[in-house]
């Protein structure tokens, strides 16, 4: 008679630990959980921006508040990012896991956010039937503002921790493939900014619960993945470079990085690149409205176009990440990377200039003069709400004139004729009384706008390529003990150049080219705005190009000097040996 076998609890416990807690570093899994965390915290920052915009639209905060927050938070990040990269260098695993988990728990505080109720979007008509968002305030605006500020801080600090310590961790364990990993992580941060506001955070207005659960569950899973995929005791491998353990003080690390001219020059060039693409992307909507008289509505076709653009950029970065690593490139050749970047910058400058000069004849726009916009006389009695006006161009075919909105065309309703939606009873259309959706130049400008979208994809791809190349040059030029501090300083430089100084520069351009300024906010830019945005972006990239060219020239001179000094040293050594 056989005795029933009792399971060995100790063996089961050991098996569970081996299954859940990895004993070796699988860098692809680590990169995956870092990528998920970066996307989640970026979406969290965008949600905070949306919350702030809701208060601005409701009139509880002045219109400049969103830009003020961007600049002030950039100044804060500039100050603290290097320190965050330094602290916890021996506890990267715990730092990242705790940061993700705490921020996930904080996300549930959004349920306590005083509501700004917004109905579904629509249009405003001449007879006072306002179909625009119906906004009413919550009872406690200071509490709402406090939660928004804490949201920016929690998600921003978590992003800095994940970026700084995550990139340093991967570089310590898989330096040969670092170009691929660094490119993917930085690119997904950039692309999450591009598509996050338009596609991935719309639930803030429609279903807050879903948005909270998506971010909170995502960060919680990322926290568990960090714990399970990063071993507590790190096994040593031949690929891991030795890391000195002495003199790892904060100011010593910062001093070593700042004393490296190559690193500081590449840091500035990378930050300028980020500044140009940020300024262009942030003003995309105003750019399109001013140049093409188009109002892009979110639909399946537009979303697919965004997704296609994302795939193109990721493909470029992955391809170059493979090229920059073994077996194609056994070691990172800094001069070769910068030479590729120089060519990319030339192409990027051309793209910015061309996109600013693309021809598009928008025809006549009612009320729009050279430097000012006035509501047309034919709709003056409509009582259009200027404060909440959303530009929705309509075309009055009677005179082939574009009006800024159905209300400004004097329309009082909408009907469907032959499957086409048209506005009716328009006082500015004396013959038919009807206006169609979109500007009168919509058909002729759509083709040019397609070229604009193509050039925008090129800009994103080249910007990601340049950031990837500059980042690898810097990571291969600093002491191995300073890499997380370096990534923190890179974040600091990008915050200073892109989100502070660069943002203020583009706001100045917007202010000087405003056609219609109402209630502290520019409602419509003039025709010079797209051209100046392209020129300013091209000028910023030109500075990056000059810095990179200068760096390559000095690297070549240093290499020649080293080659010329080598025979002399050999002759001196030979003479000393003969003398002995």
UniProtKB/TrEMBL annotation:
One of its GO terms (molecular function) is sodium-independent organic anion transmembrane transporter activity. It is a multi-pass membrane protein. The chain crosses the membrane at residues 32-52, 64-87, 94-113, 145-167, 179-196, 208-227, 301-325, 337-358, 454-473, 485-509, 529-554. It comes from Parnassius apollo. Residues 372-430 form the Kazal-like domain. It is found in: Cell membrane. Keywords: Cell membrane, Membrane, Transmembrane, Transmembrane helix. This is (apollo) hypothetical protein. One of its GO terms (biological process) is sodium-independent organic anion transport. PROSITE patterns: KAZAL_2. One of its GO terms (cellular component) is basolateral plasma membrane.
């Amino acid at each position: 008679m056989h005795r029933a076998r009792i399971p060995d609890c100790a063996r089961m416990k050991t098996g569970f630990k081996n299954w859940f807690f990895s004993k070796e570093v699988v860098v692809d899994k680590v990169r995956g959980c870092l990528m998920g965390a970066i996307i989640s915290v970026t979406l969290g920052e965008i949600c905070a921006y949306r919350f702030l915009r809701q208060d601005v639209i409701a009139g509880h905060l002045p219109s400049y508040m969103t830009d003020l927050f961007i600049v002030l938070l950039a100044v804060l990040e500039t100050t603290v990012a290097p320190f965050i990269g330094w602290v916890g260098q021996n506890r990267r695993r715990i730092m990242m896991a705790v940061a993700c988990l705490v921020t996930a728990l904080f996300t549930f505080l959004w349920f306590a956010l005083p509501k700004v109720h917004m109905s579904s979007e629509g249009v405003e008509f001449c007879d006072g039937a306002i179909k625009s968002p119906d906004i009413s305030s919550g009872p406690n605006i200071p509490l709402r503002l406090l939660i928004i500020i804490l949201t920016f801080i929690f998600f921003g600090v978590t992003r800095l921790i994940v970026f700084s310590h995550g990139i340093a961790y991967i570089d310590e364990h898989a330096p040969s493939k670092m170009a691929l990993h660094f490119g993917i992580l930085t690119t997904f941060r950039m692309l999450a900014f591009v598509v996050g506001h338009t596609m991935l955070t719309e639930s803030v207005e429609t279903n807050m619960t879903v948005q909270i659960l998506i971010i909170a569950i995502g960060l919680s899973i990322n926290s568990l993945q960090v714990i399970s995929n990063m071993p507590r005791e790190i096994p040593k491998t031949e690929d891991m470079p030795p890391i000195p353990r002495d003199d790892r003080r904060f100011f010593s690390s910062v001093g070593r990085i700042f004393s490296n001219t190559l690193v500081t020059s590449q840091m500035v060039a990378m930050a300028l690149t980020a500044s140009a693409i940020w300024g262009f992307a942030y003003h995309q909507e105003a750019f399109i409205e001013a140049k093409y008289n188009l109002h892009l509505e979110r639909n399946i076709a537009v979303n697919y176009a965004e997704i296609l653009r994302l795939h193109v950029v990721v493909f470029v970065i992955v391809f170059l990440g493979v090229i920059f690593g073994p077996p194609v490139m056994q070691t990172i050749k800094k001069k070769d990377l910068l030479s590729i970047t120089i060519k990319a910058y030339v192409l990027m400058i051309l793209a910015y200039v061309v996109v600013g000069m693309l021809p598009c004849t928008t025809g006549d726009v009612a009320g729009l003069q050279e430097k000012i916009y006035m509501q047309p006389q034919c709709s003056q009695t409509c009582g259009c709400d200027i404060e909440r006006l959303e530009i929705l161009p309509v075309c009055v075919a009677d005179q082939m004139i574009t009006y800024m909105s159905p209300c400004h065309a004097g329309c009082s309703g909408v009907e469907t004729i032959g499957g086409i939606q048209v506005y009716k009873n328009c006082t500015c259309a004396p013959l038919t009384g009807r206006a169609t959706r979109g500007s009168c130049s919509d058909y002729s400008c759509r083709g040019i706008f397609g070229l604009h979208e193509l050039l925008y994809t090129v800009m994103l791809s080249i910007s990601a390529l340049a950031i990837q190349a500059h980042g690898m040059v810097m990571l291969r030029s600093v002491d191995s003990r300073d890499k997380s501090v370096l990534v923190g300083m890179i974040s600091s430089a990008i915050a200073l150049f892109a989100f502070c100084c660069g943002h203020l520069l583009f706001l100045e351009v917007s202010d000087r080219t405003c056609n219609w300024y109402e209630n502290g906010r520019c409602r419509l830019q003039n025709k010079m705005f797209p051209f100046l945005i392209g020129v300013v972006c091209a000028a910023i990239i030109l500075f990056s190009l000059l810095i990179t060219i200068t760096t390559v020239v000095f690297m070549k001179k240093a290499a020649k000097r080293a080659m010329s000094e080598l025979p002399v040293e050999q002759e001196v050594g030979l003479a000393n040996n003969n003398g002995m």
